[in-house]
Amino acid sequence: MDALIRRIAAEGKNLGGGILKVDAFINHQVDPVLMQECGRELARRFARVGVTKVLTAEISGIAPALCAATVLGVPVLYARKQRPITMPDQVYLTVAPSHTKGRPIELMVSPEYLGAGDRVLIIDDFLASGETILALARLVQAAGGTVVGIGVVIEKTFEGGREAVMRLGVPVEALARISDMSHGKIVFADVTEPSRGAATY
Amino acid sequence: MDALIRRIAAEGKNLGGGILKVDAFINHQVDPVLMQECGRELARRFARVGVTKVLTAEISGIAPALCAATVLGVPVLYARKQRPITMPDQVYLTVAPSHTKGRPIELMVSPEYLGAGDRVLIIDDFLASGETILALARLVQAAGGTVVGIGVVIEKTFEGGREAVMRLGVPVEALARISDMSHGKIVFADVTEPSRGAATY
Known about the structure:
Chain A is built from six helices and twelve strands.
């Protein structure tokens, strides 16, 4: 998605160690116009898979998931990392290793809002190692639902996440794909035709 | 806001101890249509105060804040409870007591995205004791910015939050006001004309 790629190129910061800082428009401050565009594009790409619910993980997944869910006209459910007092005693819970957090995180959803009839589009801000998305998929499977697609705002293609989540056998879409962050670079892979190779903005 | 009040009356659950469960459409699962309506209405009520930025606290404030910011055409900033690795070493940080969490929570924002020129609308899902909103206001003040309004989705009028935040001297708007949750009830105060008293739905 050109607007997103241009924005990352202009305002994203390569902090080293594969860490991309996009706090100015996605992760801390959110640009609602750009986020709506991301939501519309994700919704467009998954318009034909019969989504009944969008699932994401708090915190940074909420904005893109909400924007996509708005266009798709379905509810969005965000998995919690800590159990709020309003959640029932019996929940679906799974554990995901987190490289950026340095410790495993728990993700949980209430059985009240995820069930066997659900066709779930998983949305997150980043696809890196794929661990968070696989954890969300386990929650869907535990509830007896079906994952029908995976959409992310930014993919880091060099961290193996796509290979990891491909085993779910559903379409995987990323709005911006970054193929190289070594030596301070931010190199974009061509999103629509990866075979054409990488383009540096 | 009628649609919201009807929804709380139909699907909200009084868990006792002043805890209102709205996980079906606000706090865990989000109804994007209702949330957009809430955002539009909050934006309408603060259309004339010159907002340059919407500030909220992760996690549950993000959805209404994003929806309001979209209509107002300004960025939304969500205060973090844990410092992500992308945040600079020097941040604005404050501590808020949390009755529902049972322990103080830290709220922090990066000085990169909040500054002296900002006219800030604070938005959150709930106004209860007012502690979170006062903490957000301290962050704005620390950055040299100006709080120009406070908007919440649901106010519990019996927990003293309005009195606490009124000292900021800015307009306070709530889309649904609940005046009594004793004995399992959910009693709504009239939102637009509080003097007419409470109405039970």
